[in-house]
Amino acid sequence: MDDLTPEQRKKNMRAIRSKDTTIELALRKALWQRGIRYRKNYKGLIGKPDIVITKYRIAVFCDSDFWHGYDWENRKSRIKSNQEYWIPKIERNMKRDQEVTLALVNQGWIVLRFWEHTIRKELEGCVNDIQETIDIKKNLSE
Question: For residue 133, what are the contacts with CB-CB under 8 A and spacing of at least 6?
Fold first, then answer.
């Protein structure tokens, strides 16, 4: 049973953004402060990665825990309302994420995916992972 009225649920769902989410903004701000320049929501690649460092062919995705199925086997059972819609929807998102990652890797890109909870709790670690990937790519090209 949903705790919200249909009107409240509709309002909540409309407020969900597909880009410029709080986790994306936090990661982008931290990268910018570190001097790492990037493109955002890059339409030139499949999946429109949230952050792209074109010089080093690095694509970064900031995956929401709910929409992208973090800990899916445990969370799936917690969906109480409209299961016929939400479970297949999230599973399609997970499958699409795998397909996008594979396609980008096959095109020679390095794909980094960070979960929402990781960005929120370990932002510096996420930035360090991106920096390390850049450093590796720099050393390979020298």
Answer: 56, 58, 110, 112
Global confidence as pTM: 0.85
Tell me how far apart the alpha carbons of residues 129 and 37 are, in angstroms, rounded to a whole number. 15
Query: 110-115 and 58-63 as β-strands: parallel, antiparallel, unpaired?
Result: parallel
Q: What is the pLDDT of residues 39-49, one digit of tens each?
A: 999 999 999 99
Set out the domains of the chain in order of their start, with CATH numbers.
Answer: 6-141 (3.40.960.10)
What DSSP designation does 114 have?
A: E
Q: With the C-alpha atoms ordered 63, 67, 73, 74, is the resulting torsion angle positive or negative?
A: positive
Distance CA 60, CA 53 (A): 8
Report whether 30 contacts 41 (CB < 8 A): no
